[in-house]
Amino acid sequence: xxxxxxWFNRDEYEIVYQNRDEAEATKLADLVERVxxxxxxxxxxxxxxxxxxxxxxxxRRGYQMTGLDLSxxxxxxxxxxxxxxxxxxxxxxxxMRNPVSEASFDGILNLFTAFxxxxxxxxxxxxxxxxxxxxxxxxxxxxxxxxxxFVEQGLVPEDERVVGETTIHQRRWIEDDRIRKELTFSRxxxxxxxxxxxxxxxxPDFEKFYESAGLDIFALFGDYDGGLLSExxxxxxxxxxxxxx
Length: 245
Fold this sequence. Notes:
245 residues; alpha/beta; Rossmann fold; 2 domains; seven-stranded mixed sheet; 8 helices; 11 strands; 31% helix
């Protein structure tokens, strides 16, 4: 079983990533509105939506939101959070490599490095193809991914912290052009270890994916404030459009 098929459904994942930055989601939504200029009330699909942080932010702004994620637990939590916020969002459990629909959405969002998980390069292309297929001609796709040079320069090999009664030890390294992480959870006499692994995809890689999928890049940024992309940028945010054909 691939790491992403089990890790996002675990209690341990909740412990590590319990403090997501809502202000960060707001800034990213601001950037999408400023650059892609989606029409009021248009339909957006959040691919790899997780617990719904970004989908909820966009729904609050009046967009018709749909969220897609492989994790059953993530989808359940996203539905609960949307309901508590009084928002109507359709959340679907599914694999991003399989198209949700054909030419149904005005825009596709794939945010906060919810990509690059696959070991097989062809699966990355399948995922981009599925996003493009779900987009209406002329619609936009936004991918917010890690910036490989920044990751390579600032890699922290090891750290440890305590959350409640649990000690979390994280070890990071780069191997086969992937950033890999080992997470060990220790509590009393119990120890559990999990792994994460994300491909260090770069701009030329996405350009190849997009060319094959019929997407044309029209803007690139290196942070949520809209700064220019450089080797020192923390993010790589790509805006593209589906060819109107």
